[in-house]
Amino acid sequence: QVQLVESGGGLVQPGGSLRLSCTASGFPFGMDVMSWYLQTPGKERELVASIATVGSSRYLADSVKGRFTVSRDNAKRMIYLQMNSLKPEDTAVYYCKGIKFNTGGPSDDYWGQGIQVTVSS
Predict the structure, then answer these.
(1) What is the rounded (10 degree) CA torsion for 79, 89, 16, 46?
(2) Contact 19, 83 (CB under 8 A)
(3) Strand ranges inside 1-121, DSSP E
């Protein structure tokens, strides 16, 4: 059974930093792309960052460029979201998502349970 587990969330003051981690287990061949999404009450999940597990392809949403970085450790099957210069509007539940592409068919998508990040003084 594939599991994605996030950690590292919590309460931080504006201007502070947090590092989210996501570990994937139960999938022997790993994911192709791993991503971070955020969701605020009443809104759809939105993509924050993505990273391919092979190669150097990465994506960051405009709202977090210059403040967040996404990285991976393939040996540990983990990805990270380093969040610096946090703002109150970054407050959300952050989700880790793993995507495994299937030749000729839809991808298999997996979600973590989400972790709360609160930016407040």
Answers:
(1) 10
(2) yes
(3) 3-7, 10-12, 18-25, 33-39, 46-52, 58-60, 68-73, 78-83, 92-102, 105-111, 115-119
Mean of all residue pLDDT scores within the chain: 93
Q: Are 8 and 118 in contact (CB under 8 A)?
A: no
Confidence bin at 24 (pLDDT 50/70/90):
confident
- The C-alpha angle with vertex 44 and arms to 42 and 49, in degrees rounded to 5, equals 130
Any idea which residue has 């996030």 for tokens? Answer: 6
Phi-psi region of 2 (alpha: psi -120 to 50; beta: other; left: phi over 0): beta
Average pLDDT over residues 22-39: 86
Residue 76 tokens, joined: 């540990």
In this structure, are residues 9 and 19 in contact, taking their beta carbons and an 8 Å threshold? no
Instruction: Report the DSSP pairing between strands 33-39 and 46-52.
Output: antiparallel
- Alpha-helical (H) ranges within the chain are none
59's tokens: 């994506």
Amino acid letter at 77?
R
